[in-house]
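User: Hello! I'm new to structural biology and keep hearing that structure can be predicted from sequence alone. Could you demonstrate with DUF7792 domain-containing protein? Please show me the input and the output so I can see what each looks like.

Assistant: Of course. The first part below is the input, the amino acid sequence of DUF7792 domain-containing protein. The second part is the output, the predicted structure written as tokens.
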Amino acid sequence: MAEEKSLEEVLSLPILLADRVSKSAREAEASKLECLDLAKQVDRLSQMLRAAVRLPLTAAQSHQTLYEQPIRRIVADLAKNLDRALTLVRKCKHSGVLRQVFSITTTADFRKVSNLLESSIGDMKWLLSIYDSDNGTNLSLPPIASNDPILSWVWAHTAMLHMGQPKDRTDAALELASLAKDNDRNKKIIVDEGGVPPLLKLLSNTNSNEPNSLISVEAQIAAATALFNIVTNRDRVRHVVDTHGIPMIVHVLTESTIRVQIPVANLVARMAELDPLAQEEFARENVTRPLVSSLAMDTILDDPNFLQSGKTTIHSLVQLAGKTTQPLKSNHTGSFSYNSDGSSRSGSGSGGGSSTTNSHYHYNSSNIRKERDNETPEVKQKVKVSCAEALWKLSKGSLVNSRKITETKGLLCLAKMIEFEKDELQLNCLMTVMEIAAVAENNTDLRRAAFKPSSPPAKAVLDQLLRVIQDGNSWTLQIPAIKAIGCLARTFPARETRIIGPLVLQLGNKNVDVATEAVIALEKFVCAENFNCLEHSKAILEFNGVPLLMKLLRANDWAQMHSVVLLCYLALNVGNSKALEQARALNALEGAARSVVAQNPGLKDLIVKAMDHLTLYQPGVPHPHMQPHLLLEEVLSLPILLADRVSKSAREAEASKLECLDLAKQVDRLSQMLRAAVRLPLTAAQSHQTLYEQPIRRIVADLAKNLDRALTLVRKCKHSGVLRQVFSITTTADFRKVSNLLESSIGDMKWLLSIYDSDNGTNLSLPPIASNDPILSWVWAHTAMLHMGQPKDRTDAALELASWPKTTIGTRRSSSTKAGSRRFSSCSATPTATNPIPATALFNIVTNRDRVRHVVDTHGIPMIVHVLTESTIRVQIPVANLVARMAELDPLAQEEFARENVTRPLVSSLAMDTILDDPNFLQSGKTTIHSLVQLAGKTTQPLKSNHTGSFSYNSDGSSRSGSGSGGGSSTTNSHYHYNSSNIRKERIMRHLKSNKKSKLVVPRLYGSYPKVV
């Protein structure tokens, strides 16, 4: 953008035009009288323009700044009128006939130009009058503003702010405040015409015209009120920021009296609310210091522990506020810096401020303290309300302001206000705490620093939040208190139980909004991101929160959605609780799921997981996809019955006999295969194996559908009457389609029977049912081999399954079936499986919390701990990695491992080959590393197992019993019986082979010290 011309350059053009018009008018040979009249008007304008040229010099001599906007606007319009006058008078220069023909001028032309010049004379007369400070504010209407009187009033009042007397400047600020309050157009005019800088200058309490004078408090209040009424949107707030107004505002807030601080604090609150950039600028100027200081006025902070802390206290901040005598550095542009602790800002301008200028900002702190002491309690209450609101708006979404409030010990002050104050002040302080907590929720550093459970400010705030929640006097106070508690959910340790109780109690609040906020807060306590979600979930059940939650499911849509989310988290964390079962949580979720998912599709996965979890734990509840409570014999009985009916009906058919006989042959073959499948459980029991049922159930369910379609088709052919044929038409295409379906079922059953034949090895052929998903058939085949295969085949199957989960997530889902993960663990627990492949497969599968929880639910942890205790080193490596991953991903797995005392074998392996020669340590009262090594060598207790793979390992301080369909025999138990001496020999030989020259520490079975071999 081109550089703006100076005022002298702007005025030079119309002056030059005026001289040319006057000269041409006097040289005119036609219409001489009219031209002379124009010349008189132009001469008058020329005098006024030359008077306007002297205005900048006059303002400089009186140490004032000249308000140029109206001069530039009026002079630009005046130049256009003079140009039209010059064109007119030049037409009258010659009087020849030919000249008159080509330059006709009429009386109407002269009258029109004369009127324009007369308007310019009125504009210039009004312009010069508004710069005469002795006459006060000129509220007359210049011709240029005849269609827009607001513009002239803004010009007049703004000029008075620049060059008026103290009383006139105050009146002008009040008038601008009133105009800005009317409508947005007036606000825009004030900003566009440069009304903000003089208001900021008036607010900052400077008057260059009288260096030793102090503007009255009323002038500052008027300026702050006008700015408050102007900055009602982000653009106008940004304009104040761009004119370097924030340092001035912060200085006034620090150094002014209480009556001035009220509107200034309101101004800070509005600017911070509307513009994040203003929040940052206020933080850079450390505005929270004077705000907290004023808020803590007349407040006694009597906590000795808090007052003796290492940082500055509120009391000391109040003292500092009274002792501040540092001057404010200023320049002519209004950009300046205020030197305070932790806050500095330098401004650049046209000139530096002198000592005389600096003295404008020098306040007598004793006078300020006296003024504060003499103020009425009502005024003090108002300034506290305004400061609390400003802190609320500043902290909203601002990390730096929230941190500054907590660093200046603002939390304790806010806690005191919440405790002793009422109404608006109490609400503003609560909202401030809520916004700081909301910022801390997403910032770990602030959460740990400001809301550390052991810090006195955090304790004080927490006590007041809980008191407000429990009082229940006002829901407007309860809602921000509950929100603040919810935002700090990750701060509270598991032992902090006094938080959950009041929140659970609010679930039954008559006000639905309060109850919903309590639900949202509890969500944050029990969600997966909260490390203590399990303990918090148990606490909610202990406080009888489930019945109250069930009632909220019948509330409005917002409450219902959050209630469903909280119920889902409870189901995932404590799904095996009696409280959820008694409250029929699964039925409640099923009833509310449809409407909630319709409005919030993102919750579908969470609801499905919760329902699956409840289905797993609650007895007698059917699964939506399969029926595990039905025995395999019952599952197979239906398709066998259907096959018999299809075969009989096909042979009795009177129409399409050939096609029906072909179908009967296929169905007979299927019937034979189904009866062979019925014998599979008996065969597995005789060979002391468990039958893998998933593929049987899946294929038989598909087979039953095909048989049902075949039965429907052959029944249409039972009668051959004409009427029957009309109403039951069967075509060759129908028979072909059903025949293809039955042929696919024959292929599925043939493949199914082959994978349970251990002599044939793993069958990697593709059944028709898995034609679109070959991975599924391979997982079924390998998992079946894990259940019933020979040792080498089982190892190969585990190796294949270990390699697949690395590739795709879908493979992990297929591999992490209930039977598959159980067989991995039991395969690792057998004495023949001394290789690490099963553990590697499990390690590759459990890559998220759901799959880890699946292993926990299938009672895999006791097996893993047993393998870690009794296996060789090669197996212990991947098993230890598996333990690490599961413990990292799921807190529940951590607890289960602790219950099974997994640290004993881990420490034992960690202490292998280590000399512990400290007699004091060996003779201590607790178990030593050496004794753990000895215990690891002496352990010979067998592992109790059953056919389901759920078992318990009896060790010191660790026990777990599993339930299954049948107890394990002595033969089965012997699979888990390890000879510890063989394990020690294996470790010694492996170490000797790797390093023959090294000394190997072998723990002795008897004695206190290890022996060097």
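User: So the tokens describe the shape?

Assistant: Right, they're a compact way of writing down the 3D structure. Reading them back into a model, for example: Residues 702 and 745 are 8 Å apart (CA to CA).
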